[in-house]
Write a structure and sequence with these properties.
single chain; about 750 residues; alpha/beta; TIM Barrel; Rossmann fold; 4 domains; 20 helices; globular
Length: about 750
C-alpha cells in the first residue's frame, strides 16, 4: 500500500513538473520570437557598476544606457532594495521588451549577517547546520533585492598557499560533496519561486583548486582519472542537488580554458551529467582566454558560446563580437538562442516575469537583516567551527576568576573579524575578542589588553593586504615599545591569551602566499610571551591552514578560529570560557612544512613506502612526511574512547550491505560532541588507490561518562571508483574499514567484496 502511494505521489509530482516546464517553455518561446539578435545577445551580458566589487579591476561603463537598449541580462554589485529598484525600473519601464534583470552577488558566507569563512564552516562537519547558514543567507540576500548568489565554491583544495582555500570546504571529495549538496539545498529550498530563496551558482567549474604552485589564476593539469575520482565529485553533487547555475573557472582543463572548453561545459556537464541550468563565466574569464593565447576577443567569445557558455561576466565580448561572428558564420543562431533561453529560464524560475519587483521589499529588509536572532545563529556556527589543536594540562577552558592578559594584533580588532569575501558585511558591526572576553567576566576581574605587535611589520605586504580598506594597521609605536607593554601585563596575569594570525585579505582571491607561517612580528611576540613562564593560549585567526611548526611548541593551548564572522569575539569567548565545548574537526590538513605541500590524508602509497630505516624509501631527509595536524583532527574539553569495532559480516555482495559498529565513550566529566569518521581502504585495485577514503561521518553528542554504539552501513556503492577506462564500478577483493576521531588515529577491521 505504501509503495503504491509513493508511486502515485511521484507520478503526480512528475505531471506537475511537466506542466510547469511546458508553461515556461511556451512563455519563453513566445518572448524569444519577438527579440532581435541584439536583444538576445544582450541577455548574455552580466555587468557590474563597480561599487567595491572585490574580484577584478574591470568595471562596466555606461550601464544605464545599455539596460535601456536591452543589452544587459543581469547586474551584480547592486545591493539594497532602493538601488535594485532603480536598476529594475530602467529594464522593465524603459527597454523595448521590458525583460527584468537578474541581480547577483558574492553571498559567500552569509549576507550582512556574516558567518565564519566557508573553510571554517566546513570544520563543523554538520551539514544540517551548514544548510541553515545558506537558508539564512538567502533570506537576508533576497530581502536586500538579490536573487542570485555566486556560491557555493566547491573546489577541492590541497595547497594552502592558494588563498581561495578560505572559500571552500577543504581537501576531501566526500565531505565536499555533502557540503555542496547542503549549500545548494539551503539557498534554493524546495521552490525557486519562493521569494526567500535564490539561484545558487556552484563554482568554479572545474578543478580551480588544483592551480599549480598554489598561485591564483594559474594553470591546472591532471589526469582524467584524478579528475573523476578526486576533484569532480562535489560539482556533480551540486548538479544532482539541482543547482540552477554554474560558473566556469579561470584555469585551463586539458589545455583549454574552462570558459571555452566544450568537453567540460557540454560533453561532461550537459550531456553526461544532464545539467539543464545556466552557465556563467567568471569575471572577464572569456576575455582572458586571449592571454591563454587562444585568439583575439572575437575568437575567444565565439569559442566560449560554442563550448556551451551562456552568460559573459563583465567582459562584454559576447556583446561586442557575437553578431559579427554570426554574420561570418563562425557561430550559429542556435548557439545564441540556446544561451539566451538559459538566461531567460533562470529569470522565469525565480519569478521575475511574474513580478520583476518581487525581491524588492524595504520593509522586509528592515525587519529580517542582521536581527538579534541572526547574530545568535552566526555566533553558534562560529563556536562549532573552531578547532582545538592543543590543550596541555587542561589550560582551557579558562576560569572566570583568572587574571587574563589579552595580547595580540587581532585581540581588539574589528576590521579582520569577517574574513575575506564578506562583500555585504560591515566590519565595524563585528564583535572583537576583547569585547567578548570582557562580557564573560565581572568588572572586578583583571582583563588587561595590549596589542603586542603588528600583524606584520612588512609595509609592502601591509599595502597589498589593505586593498579593500585598513586590515593591517602598522602602529606608530616601535615594535619594542609594543612588546614591552605586552610583557608587563603578561607578568601580572595568571594566563595569557595571544590572538594572532592573518589579516582577512591575506587570504582569499588574489592572495596566494609562498610563506604560510605566522608573520615574523607575531612569531617574535609569541616567543617572548612563552619566555615569561606564564601559560599561553594561542588563538589563531586565518583563512588557510598555516604552518605552525616553530610557533606553537611553547603554547599551553592552541585554538584555530579561522575568520569567524560578525560574532567572532563572542563566539571565541564562549569557547575560551567553556560555555561551549569545541567540536570542530579540520577539513584540510595542516602542514608540518611548506615543502610538503600538497599534503593530504588520502595520498597514494608508493612502490617504496616511507621506511625510516631505509634511505631508499619515499621520505624527506629533514622533515616528516605527515602533516602537523591531520585531516579530521580536533580536540575537545571532553575525552573520547573508541572501542570494540565490529562488522556484521566479513563478506559483502554487490547488492548487499554490512554494518560497522563501534562503541564511543565520553570518558571525561564534561559533556561534549565528537565527529566519528568512517574511512575505507581498498587493499587491491586495478589502479593505485588512495591510502584510504572518507565514506561517512556522524556528529555525536555524549554526556559525561555516556557511551553510545555508533553504526555505519557499508554498501557496494561506497566501494565504487572510476577505473583507468573511466568506468564507474567496484572490484572484488579485500577492504579495510577504519573508524575514529581523525584520519590518523583509527580502529580497523576487514571484509571482502564478493
Amino acid at each position: 500500500m505504501k509503495k503504491m502511494l509513493l508511486i502515485v505521489v511521484l507520478f503526480t509530482m512528475s505531471q506537475i513538473i511537466h506542466a510547469q516546464d511546458a508553461k515556461m517553455n511556451a512563455f519563453i518561446a513566445s518572448l524569444m520570437s519577438k527579440m532581435t539578435v541584439e536583444e538576445k545577445i544582450g541577455q548574455l551580458n552580466l555587468l557590474t557598476p563597480g561599487w567595491g566589487i572585490p574580484t577584478g579591476s574591470v568595471v562596466s561603463t555606461d550601464v544605464e544606457s545599455k539596460i535601456k537598449a536591452g543589452k544587459v541580462g543581469g547586474l551584480f554589485g547592486v545591493i539594497g532594495a532602493e538601488k535594485v529598484k532603480q536598476a529594475q525600473d530602467i529594464a522593465v519601464q524603459q527597454s523595448r521588451l521590458k525583460i527584468p534583470l537578474l541581480f547577483g552577488s558574492d553571498v559567500i558566507h552569509g549576507h550582512k549577517t556574516t558567518f565564519p569563512i566557508p573553510l571554517g564552516i566546513s570544520c563543523t562537519w554538520d551539514t544540517a547546520l551548514i544548510r541553515q547558514t545558506a537558508i539564512l543567507a538567502a533570506n537576508e540576500a533576497t530581502a536586500d533585492g538579490l536573487n542570485w548568489a555566486f556560491s557555493p565554491m566547491v573546489d577541492i583544495a590541497r595547497d594552502p598557499r592558494w588563498g581561495r582555500v578560505a572559500e571552500g570546504s577543504g581537501e576531501d571529495p566526500f565531505l565536499g560533496s555533502q557540503i555542496a549538496r547542503a549549500m545548494v539545498k539551503g539557498y534554493q529550498g524546495n521552490d525557486l519561486a519562493d521569494k526567500r530563496t535564490l539561484l545558487a551558482c556552484v563554482k568554479h567549474f572545474a578543478l580551480y583548486g588544483a592551480s599549480e604552485a598554489g598561485r591564483d589564476y594559474n594553470s591546472v593539469d591532471m589526469s582524467r582519472n584524478r579528475m573523476y575520482n578526486e576533484y569532480l565529485p562535489p560539482y556533480k553533487a551540486a548538479v544532482d542537488a539541482g543547482v540552477a547555475t554554474i560558473m566556469s573557472s579561470f584555469n585551463d582543463v586539458d589545455g583549454v580554458p574552462a570558459s571555452g572548453n566544450k568537453w567540460l561545459l557540454t560533453d561532461l556537464l550537459r550531456k553526461d551529467w544532464k545539467f539543464n541550468g545556466m552557465i556563467v563565466s567568471d569575471y572577464t574569464s572569456v576575455n582572458e582566454m586571449s592571454n591563454h593565447r587562444l585568439g583575439d576577443l572575437q575568437a575567444v567569445s565565439a569559442l566560449a558560446i560554442k563550448a556551451g557558455l551562456d552568460m559573459d561576466m563583465v567582459g562584454e565580448g559576447f556583446l561586442s563580437t557575437l553578431k559579427k561572428s554570426l554574420q561570418e558564420k563562425k557561430i550559429s543562431m542556435a548557439d545564441i538562442d540556446r544561451a539566451c533561453r538559459k538566461v531567460l529560464e533562470a529569470k522565469y524560475k525565480v519569478g521575475l516575469f511574474a513580478d520583476p519587483y518581487r525581491y524588492i521589499d524595504a520593509e522586509r529588509a528592515s525587519k529580517e537583516i542582521l536581527t538579534p536572532e541572526n547574530r545568535m545563529m552566526a555566533r553558534k556556527v562560529a563556536t562549532q567551527s573552531f578547532v582545538l589543536l592543543k590543550n596541555e594540562k587542561q589550560t582551557l577552558p579558562l576560569k572566570k576568576t583568572q587574571r587574563v592578559a589579552l595580547i595580540g594584533p587581532l585581540a581588539n580588532d574589528k576590521s579582520n573579524m569577517l574574513g575575506t569575501w564578506a562583500v555585504s558585511g560591515d566590519p565595524q558591526m563585528s564583535i572583537p575578542v576583547l569585547q567578548g572576553v570582557q562580557s564573560k567576566t565581572s568588572s572586578s576581574t583583571y582583563i588587561a589588553y595590549a596589542k603586542g605587535s603588528n600583524i606584520t611589520d612588512d609595509t609592502a605586504l601591509a599595502k597589498r593586504a589593505n586593498v579593500f580598506g585598513l586590515r593591517v594597521d602598522i602602529d606608530k609605536r616601535s615594535p619594542d615599545a609594543m612588546l614591552e607593554e605586552a610583557l608587563a601585563i603578561a607578568k601580572s596575569s595568571d594566563v595569557v591569551v595571544a590572538v594572532v594570525g592573518e589579516a582577512s585579505e591575506m587570504s582569499g582571491e588574489a592572495a596566494s602566499r609562498a610563506d604560510i607561517t605566522l608573520p615574523a612580528a607575531e612569531q617574535k611576540l609569541l616567543k617572548a610571551l612563552y619566555a615569561t613562564g606564564k601559560p599561553v593560549v594561542v588563538v589563531i585567526m586565518s583563512g588557510r591552514p598555516l604552518v605552525l611548526t616553530g610557533s606553537i611548541e611553547g603554547a599551553a593551548a592552541v585554538l584555530q578560529v579561522w575568520h569567524a564572522g560578525i560574532e567572532a569575539g563572542n563566539a571565541i569567548a564562549d569557547v575560551l570560557y567553556g560555555d561551549v565545548n569545541p567540536s570542530g574537526k579540520l577539513s584540510m590538513s595542516m602542514p608540518y612544512h611548506v615543502g610538503q605541500i600538497p599534503v593530504y590524508y588520502s595520498q597514494k602509497t608508493t612502490g617504496r613506502p616511507q621506511d625510516l630505516n631505509n634511505k631508499f624509501s619515499s621520505r624527506y631527509l629533514d622533515i616528516p612526511n605527515e602533516p602537523l595536524f591531520p585531516f579530521g583532527y580536533g580536540l575537545s574539553y571532553a575525552s573520547f574512547e573508541y572501542t570494540d569495532l565490529k562488522l556484521s559480516a566479513n563478506t559483502i555482495g554487490r547488492e548487499g550491505a554490512i554494518k560497522a559498529t563501534i562503541q564511543l565513550t565520553n570518558t571525561s566529566k564534561v559533556d561534549g560532541a565528537e565527529v566519528v569518521q568512517l574511512y575505507i581502504e581498498d587493499k587491491v585495485r586495478s589502479i593505485t588507490p588512495p591510502s584510504k577514503e572518507l565514506k561517512g561521518f556522524q556528529k555525536v553528542v555524549l554526556k559525561a561518562g555516556e557511551s553510545k554504539m555508533i553504526e555505519f552501513t557499508i554498501t557496494n556503492e561506497m566501494l565504487k571508483f572510476w577505473s583507468a577506462a573511466l568506468q564507474y564500478d567496484s572490484e572484488s577483493g579485500e577492504f579495510a574499514v577504519h573508524v575514529g576521531g581523525n584520519s590518523r588515529d583509527l580502529k580497523a577491521a576487514g571484509f571482502v567484496l564478493k
